[in-house]
TrEMBL record:
Record Gene3D superfamilies: 1.20.120.1630
Annotated organism of origin: Sorangium cellulosum (Polyangium cellulosum)
Membrane topology qualifier: Multi-pass membrane protein
Pfam families to which the protein is assigned, alphabetical: PEMT (PF04191)
Name this protein carries in UniProt: Isoprenylcysteine carboxyl methyltransferase
GO MF term list: methyltransferase activity
Key words, A-Z: Membrane, Methyltransferase, Transferase, Transmembrane, Transmembrane helix
InterPro entries documented for this protein: Metal_cation-efflux_comp, Phopholipid_MeTrfase
């Protein structure tokens, strides 16, 4: 299913990044790309760089497998695993789009420390604080399972590490600083990546 994995990766890139940025520009005049504001080689900078690495590897892995240059992991090279990957991708893509659209004008790629965007708590954000990242991991894991090489699994690992750095060291501190008690109360009832899991303790 390497060819399907390549198509899935290209589709995800088109929908989640290109089309979403076009919608954002039409709505706000900005494409929403903030990028990384931290010093090069700092932990938070490396988190941003890992996002790029993860998505490049996620696309390169099935392309190399299709060309016969990347060998599959034998334990995962099974039709049922590939079917599971397709299902995960089929869940991750619409969840990404739904979550991005739910953010409205607050959607960004990266965090601008000087900006103040609205705190989004509706739609998929009602129960999960970071549904876009959850959906991204589902989609990239799905692509990896459709063409399960070591490089594909490395892409998943890089994305998970990037998400953890971005959420814990960049976004949560920013939101707590900008929205204060409102964010902390929201974080006390909504899970970090899954409903009920990773809730922050409410503060007086």
């Amino acid at each position: 299913m390497s060819s399907l994995a390549v198509v899935a990766w290209a589709l995800y890139l088109l929908v989640a990044f290109v089309l979403r940025s076009v919608v954002q520009r039409r709505r706000t005049g900005s494409a929403g790309f903030v990028g990384v504001k931290d010093p090069p080689l700092s932990l938070r900078w490396m988190g941003g760089a890992l996002f790029v690495v993860a998505f490049v590897l996620s696309g390169a892995a099935p392309a190399l497998a299709l060309a016969g240059a990347a060998r599959p992991v034998p334990a995962l090279d099974r039709p049922l695993v590939a079917a599971l990957g397709a299902l995960l991708f089929a869940a991750g893509l619409p969840l990404t789009l739904w979550s991005q659209l739910a953010m409205g004008a607050s959607w960004r790629i990266g965090v601008d420390p000087g900006a103040r965007t609205a705190l989004v708590t509706a739609g998929p954000f009602r129960q999960v604080r970071n549904p876009i990242f959850t959906a991204m991991v589902l989609a990239v894991l799905g692509i990896a399972l459709m063409a399960p090489s070591a490089l594909a699994l490395a892409a998943v690992a890089a994305l998970v590490v990037a998400v953890e750095i971005q959420v814990r060291l960049v976004e949560e501190p920013y939101l707590a600083r900008v929205h204060g008690g409102e964010y902390l109360r929201y974080a006390a009832r909504a899970g970090r990546f899954l409903p009920g899991i990773g809730r922050l303790r409410a503060r007086a």
